[in-house]
Amino acid sequence: MKDKALNQYKIKSQNLGLKDIDLDKRQVAMYLSRFGNIDSDNDMIVKGAFKKSLQERGVDSTSNRKIAFLRYHDWTKPIGKFVRLEEDEVGLFAVAELGSSTLGNDALLDYQEGIIKEHSIGFRYLHDKLKWIEDESKEDGGYFLISEVALWEGSAVTFGANELTPVLQVAKGIDKKDQIQSIVKELDLIIKSLSSGKGTDERLYSLEMKHKFLISQLEEVYTLKNDILLVDPKKVETEKSFDWEKVISNL
Description:
Blueprint: E1 10-22, E2 27-34, E3 43-45, H1 51-57, E4 68-71, E5 74-87, E6 91-98, H2 102-112, E7 118-125, E8 130-134, E9 142-146, E10 149-157, H3 176-196, H4 201-223, H5 244-249
Parallel strand pairs: 3-9, 4-10
Antiparallel strand pairs: 1-2, 1-7, 2-6, 4-5, 5-6, 7-10, 8-9
């Protein structure tokens, strides 16, 4: 069997989008994990994997250490609480209620403006609850079947992956135009939100940091094009209007 780090705090994202939002109730609905697919960690999580955690630390449990709703997997940044956590045929479904704290209000603005659209989980593998399945059709010769994990928290994230790693790199087989359009769409959201000036200094700072990250990713996409850059992506920081369609059409 392949090696797997078991006693570490792990973060897993499957790029699952926001399902619904109720601004009046300050509630958001989402999937935190999907069942039955092999993810980038070579894992397949199956239904039942969260059952024990939900019983011990779920919404209806008596535990004082319930599964937390965080921002960026940061335990110093709780943004609300889960009011519904359950497994269905698709995956781990959740409804969370955003708190009235500064962090909760900032998160509500980010949901409303489309900044937060994805979620991921913080968990720990259990050594007797994963099994290596040999499958020669897979690149690594198989995958891990995960029948149970210890679930600690679900987080709202700006990107559906570890925030410390570049997640918008051009992947093999993915059209560069699609990548650029995706980045530009995110940049438009960030610029509009920054222009509104709503929220705390901390929120505006995080938006500025995301803006810088996206600019760096746009530059990376261009430099991977084995060609002269059509435009300096850093100019986006100062130019109020930019003909992105013209750039994309010239690729």
